[in-house]
Amino acid sequence: MPVSVPLAVQAAAWTGHDTRLVVAALLGIAVVVVTVSWAKLNAFIALLLGSAVLGLVAGLSVGDIVTSFSIGLGDATGQAGGAGKTFADVGILVALGAVLGRFLADSGGANEIVDRIVDRVHGKALPWALAGAAALVGLPLFFEIGLVLLVPIVLLVVKRTGRPVLALGIPALAGLSVLHGFVPPHPGPLVAIANLKADLGLTLGFGLILAIPTVIIAGPLLAPLVSKYGPQDAEHLPTSGGDLGGADEHTRRPKLIAVLTVVLLPVVLMLARAVAEIVSGEGNPVHDLLYALGTPLVALLIGVLVAIPLLGRAVGMDRRKIGSTIDASLPPIASTLLIIAAGGGFKQVLVDAKIGDLVGQQAAALSLSPLVLGWLVAVFIRLATGSATVATITAAGIVAPLAGDLSANHLALLALSIGAGSLFFSHVNDVGFWLVKQFFGLTVGQTLKSWSVMETVISVCGLVGVLLLSLVV
Q1: Of the given ranges (53-67, 99-113, 143-157, 179-193), which has the lowest mean pLDDT?
Q2: 429: how many CB neighbours lie within 10 A of its CB?
Q3: What pLDDT does 7 receive?
Q4: What mean pLDDT is predicted for residues 132-148?
Q5: Whole-angstrom Cα distance, residue 254 to residue 12?
Q6: Residue 374, Cα to own-chain centre: how many angstroms?
Q7: Among 92, 194, 346, 405, which residue's beta carbon has the most beta carbons within 10 A?
Q8: Whole-angstrom Cα distance, residue 68 to residue 346?
Q9: ω into residue 185 within 30 of 0, thus cis?
Q10: What pTM was estimated for this model as a whole?
């Protein structure tokens, strides 16, 4: 009598070719990890080398590897991918976001938001106000720039109130970090959206829904538990964070309503597009207008154009200063843009080598949720490389084959689960770890017990939130 083999076991049985693909993927990722963590080379170089090793071990020719990395082997069929497509989808948006953030910094708009909130809130409500202010500032600003802008304000408030440094620092850090991981136009969410072909408006909407409880839990609620691990006052700490933006802040500041308009306009346009797609069809004039205005590139470009008069001219910038502000916003993100493009190439080599298909088959056989798989892969890469962007790119590439069977809602949630995983337990191989340590005067141990714990709480809350949303959307 023949022995019956369970279907899952049959599906999970590997051929020699499958084993070769697994080895190729592990070696490619190992090259990236070692090059970043041990050799201390830029992730751009690491991703180039990792792509080459992955492709060669998987059996691709050198010519195919170059083509796959650049534009994707499926380009002839209209399925362009690789570094070029990723830069077109993500790089331009990141650049526009950087310009918007620089205007917010140089005009004093970011400080205006924070000061107006802090001046009106006192006592136990202060950590909540700082978390909200940081989240609002964090919408258009990269984490590092937002950190540099907020640290002096947090330390001044600590000195003014006598509160422990981390009691007010953790809520501000949570507001910045959550927005960085969950909400476009930050690089991580944009990369995941582009690689998974998720809807940006839906991802933005779900990301904002997740961000609110996550900021609350990882910020004001967590702060009292970890504040004992940091300095109890800021007397010995400098009240300036560095020069990542905002050093040329004008004595005149823009009005708060102008700042809020610039910060929220791109978000509102992109959300309006998502709503229009849900409630009306193509051909409806209102739908078509909102769809066009809410296209991410258009929405961010409108935001930049509106920032010129409201944040530039309003504080006395002339044409030369406005031009120099735009110019100054781009060099600091050059490395980020190259890493994003190279990450898109690495992802495409994974796809063209059919490694993603194999992972998808095994995940299906094991009945592992794509939402959990994406989070786990991102966590692994994050712990190994310290880069949230690299973690997002790699995880999105690996789970992309599973995305074809998902609804638009669940595609957006998959992008968010990967973003949540990419924030897990920041430690000594993450630049953000050292920025926080230095700015808040912490030891390595104190940073691990506070900042690293906060990042882990954000990551886990993000996953739990995604899984709960998946039950109702």
Answers
A1: 143-157
A2: 18
A3: 38
A4: 77
A5: 60
A6: 15
A7: 346
A8: 9
A9: yes
A10: 0.74
